[in-house]
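Re: [ENG-882] Designed sequences occasionally contain unexpected residues at chain ends

Forwarding the minimal case from QA. Structure tokens:
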């Protein structure tokens, strides 16, 4: 058995060596084990301690980026990583908030308690590291172990005391952001405005709940319609942008019209986080297949979360057959992990060429081609009877070169950005396919729009004629 023996040093040398070993083990211990899960209110974060120069504090919001501030002079980096938001709980709490100040004070008190527990954890890590240093040094005396353990705890208190003593809260007024350029203004506003916008957020959530009564009142006037023999009804939705009210709207249309299949042409979220996807997790319970084509606001994290839903099929450069229809989906290039939310013209042109090459190599008849941005089908690939797209939030139905192009507009009424704008409706397009000679052909498109503020509900049918039909845009306000 391997036995640890004291190093052959003089008394002073042994003490200095032991102290140095305590410093090293505590430093390594804090870097390796200086992390803790914390939860305050509906938020779950991970607090971590690491070494770095210059000293700073970080707020990490995956995958948007990091907000950093030089808050202290010690070579310590303190990080808080947002890992989860309990969105149903947050919405429930905010809708019931009558005194925002008191609510914020409660959250801050919980956070302060977590910070105290984080400090205690760091002290425990320091103490265990000090004990390990004593054992590693070969000391077998209980008194020495207590001293090294105490030295580890005191070292942590000394470090954190120095950090807190010189901590500059004003540094957050000059934050640095690292991440996607397009979301920098939104992320920095978290620091600039803090939680001062909580009353506004609460009011907006209440507004969503109130408006949905108006939105669904219009849809409820529809009589349930059973499928005609051989008919397939495909509901085209797009650009939900984090609006959970949109899923309720979709549910009503599915029930009212007997929808067989839903195709979503992207932008389910705003910033591409898995947390945002939770806002619309009721998609998993729609009862019909939900084909999803990622948009420029949808990231790999969103796609990964959606793949776990039992009824969702992600169409990412693939062909899928269902209900007698052959459907191809092509994602927006920004969804592949680009730092830009909006791909440039050259990137879109290159992706459009790849799409046409894929179609040519596939050698199959495609009934529906679904993309997010119409520029991916410019120029139009030959032989495609129906193209679905979104992105610009403007419902449109046109026919060009024998192809019917359908833009569902924005099923989420542009999300939070659309609040207060009466001209942005909740909109979907219902495609009706009839079967003849074993093939399905699009015969009509119903454009459904609900203007929630004033309760206006419109349904306009566009009959799809053979090639030669003049270009036509769906009616309704813009």
């Amino acid at each position: 058995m391997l036995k640890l023996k004291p190093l052959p040093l003089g008394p002073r040398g042994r003490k200095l060596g032991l102290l140095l070993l305590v410093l090293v083990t505590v430093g390594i211990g804090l870097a390796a084990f200086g992390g803790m899960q914390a939860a305050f209110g509906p938020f779950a974060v991970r607090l971590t301690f690491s070494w770095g120069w210059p000293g700073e504090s970080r707020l990490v919001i995956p995958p948007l980026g990091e907000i950093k501030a030089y808050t202290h002079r010690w070579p310590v980096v303190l990080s808080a990583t947002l890992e989860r938001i309990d969105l149903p709980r947050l919405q429930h709490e905010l809708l019931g908030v009558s005194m925002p100040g008191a609510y914020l004070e409660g959250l801050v008190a919980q956070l302060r308690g977590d910070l105290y527990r984080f400090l205690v954890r760091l002290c425990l890590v320091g103490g265990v590291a000090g004990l390990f240093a004593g054992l590693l040094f070969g000391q077998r005396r209980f008194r020495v172990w207590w001293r090294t353990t105490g030295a580890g705890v005191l070292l942590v208190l000394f470090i954190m005391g120095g950090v807190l003593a010189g901590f500059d809260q004003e540094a957050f007024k000059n934050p640095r952001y690292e991440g996607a350029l397009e979301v920098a203004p939104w992320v920095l506003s978290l620091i600039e405005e803090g939680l001062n916008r909580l009353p506004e957020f609460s009011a907006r959530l209440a507004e969503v709940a109130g408006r949905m009564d108006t939105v669904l009142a219009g849809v409820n006037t529809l009589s349930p319609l059973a499928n005609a023999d051989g008919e397939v009804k495909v509901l085209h939705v797009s650009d939900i942008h984090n609006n959970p009210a949109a899923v309720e709207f979709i549910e009503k249309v599915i029930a009212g019209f007997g929808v067989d299949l839903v195709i979503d042409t992207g932008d389910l979220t705003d910033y591409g986080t898995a947390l945002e996807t939770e806002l619309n997790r009721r998609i998993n319970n729609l009862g019909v297949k939900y084909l999803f084509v990622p948009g420029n606001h949808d990231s790999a994290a969103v796609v990964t979360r959606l793949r776990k839903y039992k009824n969702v099929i992600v169409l990412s450069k693939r062909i899928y057959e269902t209900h007698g229809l052959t459907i191809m989906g092509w994602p927006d290039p920004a969804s592949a992990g680009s730092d830009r939310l909006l791909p440039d013209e050259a990137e879109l042109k290159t992706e459009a060429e790849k799409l046409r090459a894929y179609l040519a190599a596939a050698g199959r008849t495609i009934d529906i081609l679904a993309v997010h941005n119409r520029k991916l089908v410019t120029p139009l690939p030959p032989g495609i009877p129906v193209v679905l797209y979104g992105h610009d939030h403007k419902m449109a139905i046109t026919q060009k070169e024998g192809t019917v192009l359908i833009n569902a507009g924005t099923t989420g009424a542009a999300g939070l950005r659309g609040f207060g704008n009466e001209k942005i409706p909740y909109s979907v397009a219902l495609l009706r396919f009839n079967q003849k000679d074993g093939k399905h052909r699009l015969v009509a498109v119903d454009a459904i729009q609900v203007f929630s503020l004033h309760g206006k509900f419109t349904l306009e049918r566009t009959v799809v004629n053979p090639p030669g039909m003049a270009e036509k845009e769906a009616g309704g306000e813009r």
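QA comment: On inspection the terminal residues look reasonable. Residues 225-337+346-463 form a domain with the Purple Acid Phosphatase; chain A, domain 2 fold (CATH 3.60.21.10). Proposing we downgrade this to a documentation issue.
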